[in-house]
Specification:
By secondary structure, the chain is of the alpha+beta class. It is built from 18 helices and 14 strands. The protein starts with 9 loop residues before the first helix and ends in a 6-residue tail after the last strand. Bound molecules: protoporphyrin IX containing FE (HEM).
Length: about 400
């Protein structure tokens, strides 16, 4: 049976799961000539690709950059200076060292301490949504993009006036990293985004060195392991990564989860009736249609998976959202079950690169989603259809039209 993966097809973008299930069943280690990549769709293979540092490397930037002809190479040089230091792309020992330092600033107690600020920001945005009236509006612009961006800016103590700039710079970097097709000037945009964002953080780091506070940026500056500290470039790069990773993915979680609830009245009724079990429900939102469509890797040593030979240097897409519906691991994987337990989804990754912000993302969803449905009991889908990102990596909406209806306090 001929099977393929065509993520740019608008029908597949709207519902990738049928195609992913066919792949998982008939060709789980699929070579895509169009993407020049392996597409892994079984849970075991995805988990192995994400966690095996011996077989796979997360560093797809260095080989890509090394083979890039001019003028692209020079255009990207300044962006590469920072992106190559992002731990998400690094191998040991660099990854191990920097991750340990970053983890010192990202302790569970610190994250829980951000709860009142997240509640406050949520309330402010819901008040604005209420003030805008009951007519059709885009929930991404009004809430799901705003909240995670404002939260990460708040905890890093980045002034609110940079919100729109930061969103634009992040989008510029994202269009390069998430391989969006059809953006001809994406290298130039990535350069622009990286230069502007790094300049902002250099200034803020200098300021925080003079006047440290209890914000995340000050904690990163102070983080030390014996005599080791983050270098200046590592500090700038890590701040950029946290800002970037801290909002794009969480935005997609909030948007996708809202859409799931609006499309599933039974699930919605349960979510509203049982606020104490929202934590379990959020795990199911992460699994069922979560923000991580895939993560990419480069084959480090030639090895075999499922009878296919993956050669050194080949590119691999580990399809997390396909693994999350693998019947070998989940009962009735195609149904949205808000009480599902256990729920060992791979949405935050697996192994050494497991998401450092998982607890923060969960906390934001735990606060914002119940409150949204509580304050807007008549919230409904708008007349215009939701618009999905054209991306192989991120699964999320660029626009979610909703009719908020009348608000409660
Ligand atoms: C629902 C929201 C989120 C999702 C689905 C998500 C997903 C992921 C995944 C799948 C990885 C592993 C990448 C890989 O193996 O290549 C990862 C890593 C990472 N995430 Fe998240 N993330 C989310 C939110 C956040 C937040 C809020 C932050 C920070 C404030 C964050 C910071 C990071 C960092 C720094 C890494 C790199 C860790 C490393 O390489 O050691 N993420 N995330």
């Amino acid at each position: 049976m001929p099977v393929g993966y065509t993520p740019s097809d608008p029908a597949v973008r709207a519902d990738p799961y049928r195609q992913l299930a066919t792949l998982r069943q008939h060709d789980p280690v699929h070579w895509s000539p169009a993407l020049k990549s392996w597409i892994l769709t079984r849970y075991d293979d995805v988990a192995r690709a994400l966690s095996s540092a011996e077989e796979m490397s997360p560093d797809r930037l260095t080989p890509f950059y090394a083979s890039l002809p001019e003028p692209g190479r020079s255009t990207l040089a300044e962006a590469m200076r920072y992106l190559s230091l992002w731990i998400v792309f690094r191998d040991p020992p660099g990854h191990t060292r920097v991750r340990a330092l970053v983890a010192k600033a990202f302790l569970p107690g610190t994250i829980n301490g951000w709860r009142p600020a997240i509640e406050d920001l949520t309330e402010r945005l819901l008040n604005d949504l209420s003030a805008a009236g009951p007519n059709e509006t885009d929930l991404v612009g009004a809430l799901t993009m705003q909240l995670p961006a404002r939260v990460i800016m708040h905890v890093m103590n980045v002034p609110e006036r940079y919100l729109h700039d930061i969103k634009a710079w992040s989008d510029d970097i994202m269009s390069f990293l998430f391989s969006a097709r059809g953006i001809p000037d994406k290298y130039e945009r990535a350069r622009r985004g990286a230069v502007a964002m790094s300049a902002l953080f250099r200034g803020l780091i200098e300021e925080r060195r003079r006047m440290p506070g209890d914000d995340l940026l000050s904690l990163l500056i102070a983080a030390r392991d014996a005599d080791d500290r983050l270098t200046e470039d590592e500090l700038v790069a890590t701040s950029m990564l946290l800002l970037f990773a801290g909002h794009e993915t969480t935005t997609n979680l909030l948007s996708n989860a809202t859409l799931m609830l609006l499309r599933n009245p039974e699930a919605r009724a349960r979510f509203v009736a049982e606020p104490d079990t929202a934590g379990t429900a959020i795990e199911e939102f992460l699994r069922y249609d979560g923000p991580s469509n895939s993560m990419s890797r480069v084959v480090r040593v030639t090895h075999e998976i499922g009878g296919r030979q993956l050669r050194q240097g080949d590119r691999v897409f580990a399809m997390i959202n396909a693994a999350n519906r693998d019947p070998a691991y989940f009962q009735n994987p195609e149904s949205l079950d808000l009480g599902r337990q256990p729920n060992r989804h791979l949405t935050f990754g697996q192994g050494a690169h497991f998401c450092i912000g998982a607890q923060l993302a969960r906390l934001e969803a735990r606060i914002a989603l119940p409150r949204l449905f509580e304050r807007f009991p008549d919230l409904a889908l708008g007349n215009a259809p939701p618009v999905w990102h054209d991306s192989l990596i991120a699964r999320g909406l660029s626009c979610l039209p909703v009719i908020p209806g009348h608000a409660r306090r």
